[in-house]
Amino acid sequence: MKAFVQISLKEGNERRLVRELQSYSQIRNTYLLFGEWDIMAEIEMSSAEELATFVLEKIRSRPDVRLTSSLIVAGQ
Predict the structure, then answer these.
(1) Distances in Å between the alpha carbon of 69 and those of 30, 40, 44, 59?
(2) Is 22 helix (H, G, I), strand (E, B) or coil?
(3) Which of 7, 8, 28, 62 sits CB 3.0–4.6 Å from 67 for a disulfide?
């Protein structure tokens, strides 16, 4: 399953987080954004449960992350 995770940071360390996210094999692409959201990560997982665990453990647990929003792709 494919999902996009929008990430809002507390401070401006966008490029560092993008580099770290790109090191995970589950991350297909990352995008720097203007506006309320700072980064969008395109993620490929086998299940919603796996996605939830990844987002909670690898993204939301970071002290510099203020907020995330996960958008699961329903179809193309």
Answers:
(1) 14, 9, 16, 11
(2) helix
(3) 8
Q: Which fold has domain 2-72?
A: Alpha-Beta Plaits (3.30.70)
Amino acid occupying residue 25: S
Where do the structural domains in the chain lie, given as residue ranges? 2-72
Q: Indicate yes or no: pTM above 0.90.
A: yes
Tens digit of each residue's pLDDT, the chain (76 residues): 999 999 999 987 899 999 999 999 999 999 999 999 999 999 999 999 999 999 999 999 999 999 999 999 999 8
Give dist(CA 15, CA 32) in Å, integer.
8
Give yes or no for a contact between 38 and 30, defined as CB atoms under 8 angstroms apart: no
Cα(69)–Cα(28) distance, integer angstroms = 17
Q: What are the two backbone dihedrals, phi and then psi, of residue 33, each rounded to the nearest 5 degrees? A: -125, 155
